[in-house]
Design a protein that fits this description.
The protein is of the alpha+beta class and 92 residues long. It has a single domain, classed as YaeB-like fold. It contains two helices and five strands. The protein has a five-stranded mixed β-sheet. A hairpin with a 5-residue loop joins strand 2 and strand 3. The longest helix has 17 residues. The protein starts with a strand and ends in a 6-residue tail after the last strand.
Length: 92
Amino acid sequence: MAWTVKIHRKAEKQVASLSRKIIEKLQFLIADIEANGPVRGTWPNYGKLEGSNRHHCHLKKGNPTYVAVWREDKEIITVEIVYVGTHENVPY
Protein backbone atom coordinates (compact mmCIF):
# COMPACT_ATOMS: atom_id res chain seq x y z
CA MET A 1 0.00 0.00 0.00
CA ALA A 2 1.46 3.37 -1.01
CA TRP A 3 1.12 6.33 1.33
CA THR A 4 0.82 9.96 0.21
CA VAL A 5 3.14 12.37 2.05
CA LYS A 6 2.34 16.07 2.22
CA ILE A 7 4.40 18.79 3.83
CA HIS A 8 2.52 21.30 5.97
CA ARG A 9 2.98 24.91 4.87
CA LYS A 10 4.83 25.80 8.09
CA ALA A 11 7.16 22.83 7.63
CA GLU A 12 7.88 23.93 4.02
CA LYS A 13 9.17 27.24 5.40
CA GLN A 14 11.31 25.37 7.93
CA VAL A 15 12.81 23.18 5.19
CA ALA A 16 13.92 26.28 3.28
CA SER A 17 16.33 27.18 6.10
CA LEU A 18 17.92 23.71 6.43
CA SER A 19 21.25 22.57 5.04
CA ARG A 20 21.37 20.45 1.91
CA LYS A 21 22.44 17.39 3.93
CA ILE A 22 19.41 17.59 6.25
CA ILE A 23 17.07 18.15 3.28
CA GLU A 24 18.47 15.00 1.62
CA LYS A 25 17.79 12.98 4.79
CA LEU A 26 14.25 14.40 4.93
CA GLN A 27 13.68 13.42 1.28
CA PHE A 28 14.88 9.90 2.08
CA LEU A 29 12.51 9.76 5.08
CA ILE A 30 9.60 10.89 2.89
CA ALA A 31 10.39 8.21 0.29
CA ASP A 32 10.60 5.61 3.08
CA ILE A 33 7.21 6.67 4.51
CA GLU A 34 5.61 6.61 1.04
CA ALA A 35 6.85 3.07 0.45
CA ASN A 36 6.49 1.55 3.93
CA GLY A 37 4.04 3.68 5.93
CA PRO A 38 4.37 6.07 8.87
CA VAL A 39 5.82 3.63 11.43
CA ARG A 40 9.57 3.96 10.84
CA GLY A 41 11.23 2.00 13.64
CA THR A 42 14.53 1.79 11.76
CA TRP A 43 15.16 5.55 11.97
CA PRO A 44 17.24 6.99 14.86
CA ASN A 45 15.24 7.80 17.99
CA TYR A 46 11.96 6.98 16.22
CA GLY A 47 8.92 7.13 18.46
CA LYS A 48 5.18 7.35 18.28
CA LEU A 49 4.08 10.29 20.41
CA GLU A 50 1.73 9.27 23.20
CA GLY A 51 -2.00 9.65 22.80
CA SER A 52 -1.92 10.82 19.19
CA ASN A 53 -1.37 9.81 15.60
CA ARG A 54 1.97 11.66 15.54
CA HIS A 55 5.45 10.19 15.08
CA HIS A 56 8.97 11.63 15.19
CA CYS A 57 12.57 10.70 14.47
CA HIS A 58 16.00 12.33 14.40
CA LEU A 59 17.38 13.34 11.02
CA LYS A 60 20.74 14.26 12.56
CA LYS A 61 22.12 13.56 16.02
CA GLY A 62 24.58 15.79 17.82
CA ASN A 63 24.47 19.51 18.34
CA PRO A 64 22.14 20.70 16.99
CA THR A 65 19.88 17.67 16.65
CA TYR A 66 17.41 17.86 13.75
CA VAL A 67 13.99 16.26 14.13
CA ALA A 68 11.05 15.50 11.82
CA VAL A 69 7.50 15.17 13.17
CA TRP A 70 4.63 13.75 11.11
CA ARG A 71 1.04 12.70 11.62
CA GLU A 72 -0.90 9.97 9.89
CA ASP A 73 -4.45 9.74 8.63
CA LYS A 74 -5.29 6.08 8.06
CA GLU A 75 -8.68 6.82 6.49
CA ILE A 76 -7.18 8.44 3.42
CA ILE A 77 -3.68 6.91 3.69
CA THR A 78 -1.95 10.27 4.11
CA VAL A 79 1.01 11.40 6.17
CA GLU A 80 1.68 15.10 6.78
CA ILE A 81 5.11 16.36 7.84
CA VAL A 82 4.30 19.02 10.44
CA TYR A 83 7.77 20.00 11.74
CA VAL A 84 11.36 19.83 10.56
CA GLY A 85 14.06 21.58 12.51
CA THR A 86 16.22 21.63 15.59
CA HIS A 87 15.36 19.65 18.69
CA GLU A 88 14.90 22.77 20.84
CA ASN A 89 11.72 23.88 19.02
CA VAL A 90 9.94 20.54 18.51
CA PRO A 91 6.18 20.81 19.07
CA TYR A 92 5.64 17.52 20.95
